[in-house]
Every structure is written in C-alpha cells, then in structure tokens.
Amino acid sequence: MNIHSCTKITLLGISASLFTPGSLLAQTSSNYQGASSGGGFGSLVSLVICILTIVGLWKVFVKAGQPGWASIIPIYNAYIICKIVGKPGWWVILLFIPLVNIIIAIILVLGLAKSFGQSALFGIGMLLLGFVFIPILGFGAATYKGPSA
Questions:
Q1: 16 three-state secondary structure
Q2: pLDDT tens, position by position, 96-111
Q3: In this structure, is residue 94 part of a structural domain?
C-alpha cells in the first residue's frame, strides 16, 4: 500500500473511507477489494426486525382499542402508549429530556406489560429485546386489561 491509496476501515459494521492527502490531489486508482461488512445481509436482517416490531406494535395498539396506524407515527405513538398505560399525555415531553427519558421509558414499558396482564420480567424483556417481546405481546394470547396506572 502506498501513500496515495484509499484506506477502508470497518468499525461496528460501518464502513468509512479514509483518504490520505496524496490521494485527494493525485489521480490514483486503488484495486483494494476489501471484504464487505455484510451490508446486504445486515440491512436485510435490520429490515425484517424493524417490520416485525412495527407489525407487533400495530397489533398491540389494536388490542388496546387504539388505531393500529398510530404505531408508525413518531411521537404520536408515544402519546398513544401513554394513553394505553394510563399516564398523562404530557409525559411525551419527558421523553425528550436526557436521562429522564430513560426512567419514563422504563415506566411506560413496564406499564404496557402490566396493562396486558404480563409480569415485570416480561416488561424488562420488552425493554431490552423489544423486537422479540413486542410481537409476542401483539400476536400472543394476552388481552388488554385496561390502564395500569
């Protein structure tokens, strides 16, 4: 590798090209055939997880008597979750405050699990592995018991 080449670095699945000063000024070609970071497969897995979570949350909203489409509207879906859990709608504002948002999110997720008759352990599962537990809540036999507050 000479000083006029382009160096490709992959860190945590993110590829970045670092250009040396010489490569920006000179017209050089690099035959670097670095291994892909699995972008195609990783993107597909991410897309499947995202769709599974959205559909699961849609089903949770419908079970709670709320419109399913509300699950795909940012900020409004947090407001609907507050309604499902029985917390005031202004709690959505608290989700924008650093560190406070973590506490509020934990309270909302645990309340969501409780509203469907699930345990606090299930709520922790939803918090840490939402892409698994939200579809379980949406497609499972759990029924909406009412606000947990």
A1: strand
A2: 999 999 999 999 999 9
A3: yes
